[in-house]
Design goal:
The protein is mostly helical and about 110 residues long. The chain has 2 domains: about 1-35, no CATH class; about 45-90, Arc Repressor Mutant, subunit A (Orthogonal Bundle), CATH 1.10.10. Helices cover about 55% and strands about 10% of the residues. It has helices spanning about 1-5, 15-25, 25-35, 45-60, 70-75, 80-85, and strands at about 95-100, 105. The protein is rod-shaped, with a radius of gyration of 25 Å.
Amino acid sequence: MDELLKELTPEMFESELYQLIAETIGAEGFYKLAKAIGGLTVYIPLADSVIRPVRDAHIKAEFNGCNHLALAEKYEVTERRVRQLCGDGFLEGQMNLFETGGEKTKV
């Protein structure tokens, strides 16, 4: 079987979709994929949703309380999305309305 696999090329697949997959992951990779999940109906998500957990973790790690717009631009998301992930944050030097120990504290 390995010898036959060496001769397999993307152009040999009848379906344009199969050809595209084979061109992307290689004919041997496509064979392995078919062997693993062949016969099933599979939904392949958009590339953005595949990378989203890593992107969101970077946004959260880089959030400093007032850089919503900069992060939105850097990661090509909306400012609203950054706020959903990180909250509203605060303005630099903003005072906390709640007092602790009789003193006002900076957030």
